[in-house]
UniProtKB/TrEMBL annotation:
This is Endoglucanase. The keyword Heme does not apply. Belongs to the glycosyl hydrolase 9 (cellulase E) family. It comes from Cinnamomum micranthum f. kanehirae. It catalyses: Endohydrolysis of (1->4)-beta-D-glucosidic linkages in cellulose, lichenin and cereal beta-D-glucans. One of its GO terms (molecular function) is cellulase activity. Residues 38-501 form the Glycoside hydrolase family domain.
Amino acid sequence: MTKDWEKKMNFRMKSWSLVLSTFIIWEAIVGVESQHDYADALSKSILFFEGQRSGKLPSNQRMNWRKDSALDDGHQIGVDLEGGYYDAGDNVKFGFPMAFSTTLLAWSVVEYGALMGSELQHAEEAVRWATDYLLKATSNRDVIYVQVGEPYEDHNCWQRPEDMNTPRTVYVVDKDHPGSEVAAETAAALAAASLVFRLSDPTYSSTLLNRATEVFDFADRYQGSYSQSLGSAVCPFYCDFSGYKDELLWAAAWLHKATNMQSYWNYVMSNMNTLGWTQGYTDPNYVGPNGEFGWDNKHAGIDILISNEFLNLHDAENADPFYSCADEFVCSVVPESPSKCVEYSPGGLIFKPGGSNMQHSTAISFLLLVHAGNLIRTNKVVHCGNIEVSPSRLIQVAKSQVDYILGSNPLGMSYMVGYGNKFPQKIHHRASSLPSMDNHPDHIDCKGGTPYFQSQDPNPNLLIGAVVGGPNATDGYPDSRDLFQQSEPTTYINAPFVGALAFFKFHNFL
C-alpha cells in the first residue's frame, strides 16, 4: 500500500507542475501579476487553528495568548474528551463542523501538501490536533461523542474559554440515537487524515484508518439523522438540512481513496442513485447543482474527489458520472455560465444567502482548483451551454476569490486577521475580544465579558489568520462584533483556504 501511495504522490507532483505551468502561461497571456504574499497568508491561515484549540496546549504553542481550557471535558461521564477545536467564536465543540473542517484540512494537505514547504509540518499538526480528539470521541464502539458544551447557555455568556463555567454537557449518538451524517463525516475525516500521515507516521495512519472503517460501519448500519436524535442541541446551530446520504457516500469515497478496497467503490456505485447521479442533475430527488459545498452538503465534493482519484489512476471510465457532475457544479458557479446559481457582489465575491459567506468562497475556490487539475490531465474543458470554460479560467475564478479575501476588494480590506495593513479589528470571538489571562488573570464570569463585547475598541488579542464571515452582498463591512454573520471566523472557512493558498504560494516561487 505504501508503494502505491508513493506512486500516487509522484503522479500528483507531476500533475501539480502541469497545472501550475498552465497557470503561468495563462497569467502571461492576460498580463496579471500577483498582488499578494500567499506564503505569508498560508502561514497565518494555519496558525489560526492554534487559536481555536481546546484542551491542554503544547509547549510549542505559537498563539501564546491562548491558555489551557476545558481540561475536564467528558469526565462527568467517565470519558476523556479533552482537546479538539472550538468551531468558531464560541466555546462549544460541535462535532459535525469539526469533522468537516478536519476532512477539508486533510484534503488540502493531501492535494497540495508538497507545495507548502516548511508550513507542511504546521498543517500536519493542525490535522493531528483534530484527529487526536476524534479518536477519543470514537473510542467506544458504536458510540460517538459528537458535541461538548450546552449551546444555549454557552451563547448566553461572553467568556474566555479559559474561564468558562457553563455546562460541558456531552451529546452522544449511538445505535438507539443514530447520527449518520456526523458519524460518516467523522469517518471521512479519519480516512482523509490517514493519508496525510501515511508516509510520516504509518502507525498513526493505520490507527486512523482502522477507526475510520469502524465508524463508517456504525454510520451505515444505524442510519438516521442526528438532527432528529439530538434535536435542539444541534438545531439550529448545525442542523443537517441536506440529509445524511451524502455524508455516507462522502465517507465511502474517502475510504476507497485510503484503502483501494473494491467494497467501498461498490458502496458508492450501489447507493449513488439515492442522490440522483444515475439520472444526472435532472433527477427530482437531487438538490443540485446549486453552487453549494460545505459542512452540510457534500455533493460537489464527492463528484470532484472521485473524478480526481480515478483520473490520477488513469481510469477515466470510472470517473463518470462524477466527472460530468463536477462539470455541472462548475457551470453553477462560473460567472459567465448561463446556469450560474450563485450571486457575485459588485466587487466580485461569491455570495450566497445566510451567514458566514466566506465559507462558500473558500470551499468553492478549493474545488475549482482541484477540478482544474482534472481538466488539464484529461486535456478537456467544461461546456456550460454555449460557453467554453477552460481550466485556466477555473484557476482565474479561484484566484479572484483568494485575492478578494486578501484585500483586492472595494474596501481595500483583508478579511484575514493579521494579513495586510487593514483587516477586521472587532471580530465576533470571545477569546480574541476579552483580555488574555496574561493581562487579566482574574476570573471573568458569564456576564463579566459583556462590556468587552459592547466596546467599540479593537480586540486586544489578534487571532492571526482568522478569515471572518465577510462583507455583505454590496461589499460593505461594518466591523462589528454584534454582526456575527459577518465578523465571526470559523474553522470550516479556513480549512479549504489552506489548500488554495498553498496552490498560489507555490506559483509565486516558480
